[in-house]
Amino acid sequence: IAPAATTMLPPEGLPRLNAAMQQCRTCPIGALATQAVAGEGPLAPRLMFVGEQPGDQEDLRGRPFVGPAGQLLERAFAEAGIVREEVYLTNAVRHFKYDLRGKHRIHKTPSQQEALACLHWLREEIALVRPRALVALGATAARSLLGRSVVVRAERGTWLARGDGLQVLVTLHPSALLRLPVSQQARAFEEFVTDLRRAAA
Ligand code: URA
């Protein structure tokens, strides 16, 4: 009997990567999620935005940044003159990690080991997508992109170099803005937009 690989050639590039990602069970998160969420956007974009992991909506719909954090990100994009369809959006971790409370699935931050187990997908995606620069949304993405822990408040808003020559701008995760007391949200949003403007400049 011929092995399947001799009769079914794997698709190349991003479709191959995204199909392989669906099978990933390297860490325990995958078994509980609906699906792995691949990145989306054009090839060779000016910017690739990297979030932490899909949320509840993203897990169900199979697309990055389509829930509340995505809506806030799109509002900030509009203020910063960034067009969502012209940038690439992806995540450091590809499956939704959550705690079940009654009927609700509550976001749980992925561990460093889980983010590390997912890193090869991101590396391969960056190589295939070839962005001109990277934006890390929050500490998980910053760690995955820079290979070290990052205190977002201390390093946000400036370009940081990676070993491969790509530049990374670190900023807050939009979910962090949503968690702030209402009285602090307007100012934090303006600061977020300032970081995005810098990334887009
Ligand atoms: N938060 C993320 O980090 N990524 C998403 O895709 C959605 C919410």
From TrEMBL:
Record organism: Ramlibacter agri
Protein name: Type-4 uracil-DNA glycosylase
Coiled coil spans: none
Residues of the full protein shown: 271 to 471 of 471
All copies of domain Uracil-DNA glycosylase-like, residue ranges: 38-193
Recorded family membership: Belongs to the uracil-DNA glycosylase (UDG) superfamily. Type 4 (UDGa) family.
Signal sequence annotation: none
